[in-house]
Amino acid sequence: MNAITNKSSSWDEFIGRLEGPEGCDFKDSGFTCFGDHRLSRKILAEMILSEREIEASIKFFEENGGFCDCEVVLNLTGPSPYEIYRELMERTVH
Ligand SMILES: [Zn+2]
């Protein structure tokens, strides 16, 4: 039983990949989300989780407000690097 949760040692790696170009690709201009967990599933499969572990991980995400890929990033993390970056931009651009 090695579902990935925010207590896992590989959580940061997972979220980093989900935020990045192979996942939701968060940018100032927007991000990718299909309204499901296809990006999370792809990354979890690449991190060599079994089908069962992937399902357990997705269940954990949903129980914590992550009903799709972008919500996993937005609702299961504290202020993300993306949000910190945005805040910095808003503060310094003018
Ligand atoms: Zn989404």
Name the structural class.
mainly alpha
Assign an overall shape: elongated
Number of helices: 5
- Tell me what portion of residues adopts beta-strand conformation: under 5%
Number of folding domains? Answer: 1
Rg over alpha carbons = 14 Å
Unreliable spans: none
Task: Report the bound ligands by name, code or SMILES.
Answer: zinc ion
Largest sheet: none
* Average of the residue pLDDT scores: 91
Q: Tell me how many strands there are.
A: 0
Roughly what percent helix?
40-55%
For the termini, the CA-CA separation is 50 Å
User: How are helices and strands ordered from N to C?
Assistant: HHHHH
Task: Characterize the structure shown.
The protein contains five helices and no strands. With 94 residues, it is mainly α. It has one domain. The longest helix is centred in the middle third of the chain and has 13 residues, at 51-63. The structure holds zinc ion. Zinc ion (ZN) is lined by residues 33, 35, 68-71. Residues 33, 35, 68-71 line the site of zinc ion.
